[in-house]
Amino acid sequence: MTSQEIRAKFLDFFAKRGHVIVPSSSLIPDDPSVLFTTAGMQQFKRYYTGELDAVKDFKKKNAVSVQKCFRTSDIDEVGDESHLTFFEMLGNFSFGGYFKEKAIEYAYEFITEKLKLPIDYVSVFAGDKEVPADTESERIWESLGVKNVKKAGRADNFWGPTGSEGPCGPTSEVYVRGVEVWNLVFNEYYCKTRINADETRIDAEGKKILTPLKIKGIDTGLGLERLAMVVQGKPTIFETDTFEPLLKLLPETMPVRTKRILADHVRGVAFLISDGVCPSNKEAGYVLRRLMRRTMVYLHLAGNPVKPVHLFEEVFENCERFYPELNREVVLEVFDEEHQRFQATLQKGLRELARAPTLDVRSAFMLYESFGLPYEIVKELGGDKAKDLKREDFDEEFKKHQEISRAGVEKKFGGHGLVLDTGEIKAGSEEELKKVTRYHTATHLLHQALREVFGEEIAQRGSDITTERTRFDFTFPRKVTPEELKRVEDIVNEKIREDLPVQFEEMPKEEAEKTGALHFFSAKGGSASGGKWKYPTRVKVYYVGHSLEGAWNKEFCGGPHVGHTGEIGQFKIMKEEASSAGVRRIRATIV
Question: Which end of the chain has fewer CB atoms within 10 angstroms, the N or the C?
Answer without folding.
Answer: C
